C-alpha cells in the first residue's frame, strides 16, 4: 500500500528560516511542496520519511536564499497490482462504484468488475448484486454509500494535470485549475468470492 | 525535483502509522505545513482503524518468522501483515493460486499463526475463530 521513494531536489530556503536548523527547514519545505500531491508515475505523496544526504548550500547573486541539494526518501501511497485493500463506498453512479480510503478518493470499480450479475438501481442510486440463491430465485444485495468494501487493485492510471511536466503545482490557483482532471486513478475489482461488502462474507 | 528510485522499499501500514504519529506529535508548533496536516490526519484516521494499530515490531517479526515455511512472496506476506486474514476465503484472495500452493491444513495453520500473533483481529469475528481453534 505504501512505498518509499528516493528523490533528489534543490531546496530553496528563504532567509526568514535561517534561524531554524537547516535539516528542519528543508524537511518542512519538502513537506510543503509534496505532501498530499500526486507525482506523475510515482503516486500520492504522504510525508517525508527521512533526509539521506545534504550537500553544500549555494547562494546566488541577487537572491538572499540558500539553495541546498538534498536527497531524501518520501512515503508514497501506491498500492501494487492485485493488492487487496479495504475502503468505504463514497458514491455510486452508472459508471460504477466510487471507493474512498479517507485520504485517497479516486478509486473506481467499473460495472464489468462488479460481482456478476449486478444492476444499477436508479431510485436508490446504488449498485445491486443479484445474488443467485441456488433455488432459481434472486436475492438483492445493495451496495450502499458508506459501507466498508474489500476490493482488489487491478489497474492504475496517471494523468498529467498541468502543462509544466511532472512538477507539481504549489500555487493555489494552479491547483484549482487542474482540479477537474484526476491525476491518479485506481481501478478496482470485486468480482471474486470474498470481495465486495464485508457483510456479504461475514458468516 | 528528480525521482531516483520510484520504489526503493515497501512499507507496512504499521511503519507508516508510527511515522505519522511521531510527525504529528513532533511538529505541533509548525504553522507552515500546508497540506501535510490534512494528509497526515486523514491517513492516520484510516490506519488507526486497521489492525496495524495494535501491532508491535516484535509481533510482526515473530509472525513473519512463523510464516517462513510457507514460501509466500513478499507482497503476500505484506498483505497478511497489513490486513491479517481471519478466514480461509481471505487467504485465497491474498495468495495467488493458493489451492495449488497450499493444502487445507496449511491454510488453517496460517490462520492460527495470524491469530496467535495478532490476537486483536479475533474480536471482529469471534465466533469464527473459536471454531477454528477448537
| CATH class identity of the largest domain in chain A | Mainly Beta
Contiguous low-pLDDT stretches of chain A (5 residues minimum) are: none
Measure the end-to-end span of chain B: 57 Å
Mean of residue pLDDT values of chain A: 87
How many distinct beta strands of chain B?
1
Beta-strand level of the residues of chain A, as a percent range?
over 45%
Q: Bin the helical content of chain A.
A: under 10%
Shape of chain B: globular
CATH architecture of the largest domain in chain B: Up-down Bundle
Content-based structural category of chain B: mainly alpha
CATH class of the largest domain in chain B: Mainly Alpha
How far do the termini of chain A sit from each other? 27 Å
**Shape label of chain A:** elongated
Main sheet record of chain A: 5 strands, mixed, barrel
Secondary structure: helix percent of chain B: 55-70%
Instruction: State the order of secondary-structure elements of chain B, H for helix, E for strand.
Output: EHHHHHHHH
Keywords:
heterodimer, A: 203 residues, mainly beta, Dna Ligase, domain 1, OB fold (Dihydrolipoamide Acetyltransferase, E2P), 2 domains, five-stranded mixed β-barrel, 10% helix, B: 134 residues, mainly alpha, Growth Hormone, Chain: A, 8 helices
Amino acid at each position: 500500500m505504501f512505498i518509499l521513494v528516493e528523490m533528489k531536489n534543490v531546496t530553496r530556503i528563504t532567509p526568514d528560516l535561517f534561524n531554524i536548523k537547516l535539516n528542519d527547514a528543508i524537511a518542512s519545505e519538502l513537506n510543503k511542496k509534496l505532501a498530499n500531491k500526486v507525482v506523475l508515475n510515482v503516486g500520492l505523496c504522504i510525508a517525508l520519511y527521512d533526509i539521506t544526504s545534504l550537500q553544500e548550500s549555494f547562494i546566488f547573486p541577487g537572491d538572499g536564499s540558500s539553495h541546498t541539494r538534498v536527497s531524501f526518501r518520501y512515503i508514497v501511497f501506491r498500492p501494487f497490482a492485485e493488492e487487496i485493500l479495504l475502503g468505504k463506498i463514497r458514491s455510486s453512479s452508472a459508471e460504477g462504484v466510487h471507493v474512498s480510503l479517507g485520504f485517497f478518493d479516486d478509486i473506481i470499480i467499473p460495472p464489468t468488475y462488479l460481482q456478476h450479475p449486478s444492476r444499477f438501481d436508479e431510485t436508490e442510486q446504488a449498485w445491486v448484486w443479484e445474488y443467485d440463491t441456488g433455488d432459481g430465485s434472486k436475492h438483492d444485495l445493495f451496495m450502499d454509500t458508506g459501507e466498508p468494501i474489500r476490493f482488489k487493485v487491478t489497474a492504475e492510471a496517471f494523468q498529467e494535470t498541468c502543462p509544466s511536466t511532472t512538477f507539481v503545482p504549489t500555487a493555489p490557483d494552479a491547483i484549482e485549475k487542474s482540479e477537474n482532471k484526476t491525476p491518479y486513478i485506481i481501478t478496482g475489482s470485486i468480482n471474486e468470492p470474498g470481495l465486495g461488502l464485508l457483510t456479504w462474507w461475514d458468516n | 525535483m528528480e525521482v531516483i528510485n520510484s520504489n526503493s522499499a515497501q512499507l507496512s501500514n504499521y511503519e507508516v502509522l508510527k511515522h505519522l504519529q511521531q510527525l504529528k506529535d513532533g511538529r505541533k508548533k509548525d504553522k507552515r505545513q500546508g497540506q501535510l496536516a490534512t494528509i497526515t490526519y486523514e491517513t492516520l484516521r484510516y490506519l488507526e482503524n486497521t489492525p496495524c494499530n495494535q501491532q508491535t515490531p516484535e509481533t510482526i517479526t515473530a509472525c513473519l518468522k512463523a510464516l517462513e515455511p510457507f514460501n509466500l512472496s513478499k507482497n503476500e506476506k505484506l498483505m497478511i501483515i497489513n490486513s491479517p486474514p481471519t478466514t480461509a476465503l481471505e487467504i485465497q484472495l491474498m495468495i495467488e493460486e493458493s489451492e495449488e500452493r497450499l493444502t487445507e491444513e496449511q491454510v488453517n495453520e496460517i490462520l492460527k499463526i495470524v491469530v496467535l500473533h495478532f490476537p486483536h483481529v479475533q474480536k471482529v469475528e469471534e465466533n469464527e475463530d473459536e471454531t477454528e481453534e477448537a
